[in-house]
């Protein structure tokens, strides 16, 4: 709701396929503001914490293996309704259901290789993920020059 932050991450498949820059461009052009970014390889421990809500699912081991399999681009983006806008721009979890024009709908085919992660709209999800990946001093407060044209 209103101006907020969300956690978005280009997954290892997106990095390996050279799509990371495009994902950043789409978010920038939409008007969301990048306030933190980290190119990193996720540890097993961090993967299990990040996906803790799925620990009892049959796909959990495959999911944590995948997310730790190569570098990711972890990011924090800020803006009006940033969490919901991030989810809409990502598209549905299964690329088969993701509308063309969304990141998953334009770049993905397989549920287990769906290019991008984004915080869900459940209360506290974005804050939890941001805290998991970033220290406070790794997030930058600044104004983008176009803010007065993006917002009424
Ligand atoms: P999302 O990434 O859209 O938030 P989620 O939180 O339900 O989706 O699941 C996390 C990731 O786990 C998802 O991006 C892909 C994978 N996944 C989800 N459901 C799956 C399933 N039934 N089989 C295999 N992988 C699945
Ligand atoms: Mg999720």
Polypeptide structure, described:
- There is one protein chain.
- This protein is of the alpha+beta class and 152 residues long.
- It has a single domain (3-142), classed as Alpha-Beta Plaits (2-Layer Sandwich).
- It is built from 8 helices and 4 strands.
- Strands 2-3-1-4 form a 4-stranded antiparallel beta sheet, sandwiched between helices.
- The longest helix has 11 residues, at 20-30.
- The two termini are 16 Å apart.
- 2'-deoxyadenosine-5'-diphosphate binds next to loops.
- It comes from Halomarina rubra.
- Its cofactor is Mg(2+).
- Keywords: ATP-binding, Cytoplasm, Kinase, Magnesium, Metal-binding, Nucleotide metabolism, Nucleotide-binding, Phosphoprotein, Transferase.
User: Mean pLDDT, nearest integer?
Assistant: 97
C-alpha Rg (nearest Å): 15 Å
Amount of beta strand: 15-25%
Spell out the helices and strands N to C. Answer: EHHEHHEHHEHH
**Ligands:** 2'-deoxyadenosine-5'-diphosphate, magnesium ion
**Strand order, sheet with most strands:** 2-3-1-4
- Counted beta strands: 4
Oligomer: single chain
Shape: globular
Structural class: alpha+beta
Name given to the CATH architecture: 2-Layer Sandwich
Please indicate the count of domains: 1
**What is the assigned CATH homologous superfamily?**
Nucleoside diphosphate kinase-like domain
Q: How far do the termini sit from each other?
A: 16 Å
Number of helices: 8
The CATH topology annotation reads as Alpha-Beta Plaits
CATH class: Alpha Beta
């Amino acid at each position: 709701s209103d101006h907020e932050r969300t956690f978005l991450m280009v997954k290892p498949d997106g990095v390996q396929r050279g799509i990371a820059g495009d994902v950043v461009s789409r978010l920038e052009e939409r008007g969301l503001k990048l306030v933190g970014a980290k190119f990193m390889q996720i540890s097993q421990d961090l993967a299990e914490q990040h996906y803790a809500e799925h620990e009892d699912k049959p796909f959990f081991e495959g999911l944590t293996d995948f997310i730790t399999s190569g570098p990711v681009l972890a990011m924090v983006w800020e803006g009006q309704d940033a969490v919901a806008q991030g989810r809409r721009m990502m598209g549905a979890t299964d690329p088969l259901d993701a509308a063309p024009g969304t990141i998953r709908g334009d770049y993905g085919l397989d549920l287990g290789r769906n290019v991008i992660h984004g915080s869900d709209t459940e209360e506290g999800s974005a804050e939890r993920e941001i805290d998991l990946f970033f220290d406070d001093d790794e997030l930058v407060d600044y104004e983008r020059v176009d803010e007065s044209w993006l917002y009424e």
